[in-house]
Amino acid sequence: MNALITVAGLKKSFHTPAGEIKVLKGIDAVFTEGEIVSIIGVSGVGKSTFLHIMGTLDRPSEGTVSYNVKGETVDPFTFGDGRLALFRNSFIGFVFQFHYLLPEFSALENVMMPGLIMKSASKPEYGTDQVHERAKQLLNDLGVYGRRHHKPGELSGGEQQRVAVARALLLGPRVVFADEPTGNLDTATGEELFRLLMDVNAKNGVTFVVVTHNESLSRKCHRTLEMVDGIMVHH
To answer: Has residue 57 been placed in a domain?
Structure first.
């Protein structure tokens, strides 16, 4: 399989009044197209920081994150802010432990939101009709089509996360970064959501990088990486 993301010498430090805190201490890793990789490790070792940098939400202190885009190697951190945001929106999806749905909008409107933002960023191919149809299809695929007109507050935790997954998939990302996506769900609901992610991976070849504390879920992934004190250990 082709490498989708290559991480080399990745370091991240935060400056605090008490001095410099080194969170990531030199990580090398490759993520290939169409795989599901879990990242495990105790709290506070830098898993979320690593995910945020790979997803271009945060910048590294040192090292590189390279993406394979149609056979070309791209370093998104060389882009200006506008181009970086466009790259992130069209290439990357995110699912967090908390769903971050907008409470005043319906499930369907929440899923459509990235497409409407993309349309306003001068991408005319994302017409409202196409975005609407795609959002409905995803809600159907994820088993929450019947709840499309409900607002997040009227949905169960599992339903909220399914809507969040649909939103992450709306623009057809090549990779989805999921940070403890089942962390707020009971065991059965969490396993069900994870099964849906695996279905999306099998059907559409979307790469998933999943931070999880759940060992039984991490074992279902194609492979597992463990973060220990700011470095990565391959299992």
So the answer is: no
